[in-house]
Amino acid sequence: MQSVYNATQLKIVATLMRKTLVSAVLFILANGVGLLLAGIILPGFSMGIVALVFAAILFSLLEVILGPLILKLAKKRLPALEGGISFVITFVGLFFTSILIDGMHIGGLSNWLLASIIVWLGALIASTLLPRYIFTKPDQ
């Protein structure tokens, strides 16, 4: 049976798949760094290492799913919220993650607000720095 794709097309698809996978791993790692920072900085924010891994994966998935929905809702109903949409998405993602991950606890309203800021900022910084140090090809 003859392939419907030629070698060049397969190489392009493989490259796109690799880039997508690397982006997904980077997104999960960056969110994991943000969650870890919140756990280190905030006294009422706690989770075990296994919970951290599952929380990073679930939190990232929730952000990908809920982000566009919250953004669409904000544009329709609350246009003033658009500037802080990342914060809102992070807060909502933390909320659902803390409900679904048994070993994750965020205590008090101030911890919730600070955790949202720390996770968002930590993930932002990590997503900027990680590609430079982890996903670069070594010099030849």
Summarize the structure.
With 140 residues, the protein is an all-alpha fold. It is built from four helices and two strands. The protein has helices at 7-41, 49-77, 85-100, 109-133, and strands spanning 45-46, 105-106.
Features:
mainly alpha; two-stranded antiparallel ribbon; 140 residues
Question: Can you describe what's shown?
Answer:
The chain is mainly α and 140 residues long. It has one domain. Helix content is 75%, strand content 3%. It contains four helices and two strands, in the order H-E-H-H-E-H. It has helices at 7-41, 49-77, 85-100, 109-133, and strands at residues 45-46, 105-106. A two-stranded antiparallel sheet has the order 1-2. The protein is globular. The protein starts with 6 loop residues before the first helix and ends in a 7-residue tail after the last helix. The mean pLDDT is 86.
- Uncertain residue ranges: none
> From the alpha-carbon coordinates, what is the Rg to the nearest angstrom?
18 Å
**Total separate domains:** 1
Query: Major beta sheet, specifics?
Result: 2 strands, antiparallel
The class by helix and strand makeup works out as mainly alpha
**Overall pLDDT level:** 86
Strand order of the largest sheet: 1-2
Summarize the amount of helix as a percent range: over 70%
Distance between the termini: 40 Å
Q: Tell me the total number of β-strands.
A: 2
Shape: globular
Order of helices and strands: HEHHEH
Q: Supply the number of helical segments.
A: 4
Estimated share of beta-strand residues: under 5%
